[in-house]
Amino acid sequence: MQEGQNARRFKKLYADKQDVLVPDIFWDYTSAKVLTMEWIEGVKLNQQAAIESQGLKVLDLVNIGIQCSLRQLLEYGYFHADPHPGNILATPEGKLAFLDFGMMSETPEDARVAIIGHVVHLVNRDYEAMARDYYALDFLEPDVDVAPIVPALKNFFDDALNATVSELNFKTIVDGLGAVLYQYPFNVPAYYALILRSLTVLEGLALYADPNFKVLAASWNRLENLLVQGRQDREFAAKDALQPVLKLLLGPDGEELRVLVVKEAVRVTEAITIGTMIDSYNTAPEFVKTLVSNGNPGGPFKLSDVEREQMIELRDRVFRIWGLLRSSDNFDPSILQPIVQVLQEPEARVLGSRVAGGVTQRLAARLLQLLRTPTVPGSSQ
């Protein structure tokens, strides 16, 4: 009976997407001993030849599974904890059918917020904040000192993050994090272990079909995929979704989130400004380049190739997301109304001044680099 309730709840939350199928439960024929559900025609996800014989691609189906899993883990928190090939079928219509709802788990809302924050800290290589995240994730007791954990995180993740997102392997990161967990008094909650199991099983299915497939790269594009899907989704409630986010951001417990917002706002503003200046410089006539480069053969911007590429990539991603929003059939600028309302509150003005101050300092530092006279050998500055 509980498994039937699980299936019904899972279907209500996730079968709203046309590429996900969850069987109905026939309650009139279900009892404590017998569960009767809709029959699903399909092929196990690890039977690649049988799937391709129907004109389907395994990786397309795996990607559906990844996107659905991210919705489960981060949007609603209720997730299928046993997604092995026997429990996921490819239907002849190209849908992904989920079966067997006996092993389900739920990620608490606080934990979902902490996981998202943990990923942000990981991308920013803020290992001290990552270590503190383990309190919010209930990995560590409040009296445990996280200072010794920071070097261990840095030693592993610095190497892992030197790869681009598309080159990262989820199993590698899980193994590296596991090595850190075993060294210190961590207590991993059951839901988190099931999350890791769920994602590694999906990655295993993807690697079975294509050894070069990267689950993390597919996950990275989640926001853009949601926006594309939102073009036809008339129930896309961005306006409603903004309100609780803004409430959390400006609330008494939102300081850590505000720090992240300020940091990311400064980074995005710098990327847009400097990226546009780089584009203008690259398209300028040669005599103009000579004037503004200040004698620097690499141009006026003291940036490494990696830093330049990352800045341009971030700028382009922001523009791409905005373009997707504006091209949506049901895009309505009124979704920004909650932001306008909140900006009138004193807390928002303080946050805005912090962002403006950070942007000003960052751009001023870049301008000083631009105006700095190059050092001539044998001379002093």
Structure report:
Strands 1-5-4-2 form a four-stranded mixed β-sheet. The protein has a two-stranded antiparallel ribbon with strand order 3-6. The model is unreliable at 223-241 and 375-381 (pLDDT under 50). The protein is 60% helix and 4% strand. The protein has 381 residues and is mainly alpha-helical. The chain has 16 helices and six strands. It has helices spanning 2-14, 48-52, 58-76, 109-123, 127-136, 149-161, 170-183, 190-209, 215-220, 222-229, 238-250, 255-283, 286-293, 305-327, 337-342, 346-371; strands at residues 20-21, 43-44, 78-80, 88-90, 96-98, 104-106.
How many strands appear in the DSSP assignment?
Answer: 6
Name the shape in a single word. globular
- Overall structural class, as computed from helix and strand content, comes to mainly alpha
Rg of Cα set:
25 Å
Topology:
Elements (H helix, E strand, L loop, with lengths): L1 H13 L5 E2 L21 E2 L3 H5 L5 H19 L1 E3 L7 E3 L5 E3 L5 E3 L2 H15 L3 H10 L12 H13 L8 H14 L6 H20 L5 H6 L1 H8 L8 H13 L4 H29 L2 H8 L11 H23 L9 H6 L3 H26 L10
Parallel strand pairs: 1-5
Antiparallel strand pairs: 2-4, 3-6, 4-5
Short key terms for the protein model shown above:
381 residues; mainly alpha; four-stranded mixed sheet; two-stranded antiparallel sheet; globular; disordered C terminus; ABC1 atypical kinase-like domain-containing protein
